[in-house]
Write a structure and sequence with these properties.
The protein is an alpha+beta fold. The chain has one domain. It has three helices and four strands, in the order βααβββα. Bound molecules: FE2/S2 (inorganic) cluster.
């Protein structure tokens, strides 16, 4: 049985084309274990290209510090 991820990184077309997920994933690893990080489809924040889903809410993060404010 798969575990529900605690945080999900957008893997929609715009975020994928911007190649931002690798940075978002690195930032997420500062707060979550690898098995707590999942992916999700487009969150409607394509203009930012750093979209995550956390506790049912979509956010754009531009630096690890922004993620700290969301999950800290
Ligand atoms: S593709 Fe990531 S928010 Fe739309």
């Amino acid at each position: 049985m798969s575990k529900t991820p605690k945080i999900q990184i957008c893997n929609g077309e715009a975020c994928t084309q911007a190649s931002t997920q690798k940075y978002v994933h690195e930032w997420c690893l500062e707060y979550f274990n690898e098995d707590e990080i999942g992916t999700c489809s487009c969150l409607g924040l394509c203009h930012d290209n750093y979209a995550i889903l956390y506790k049912g809410k979509a956010h754009s993060i531009f630096a690890g510090k922004s993620l700290e404010r969301i999950v800290g």
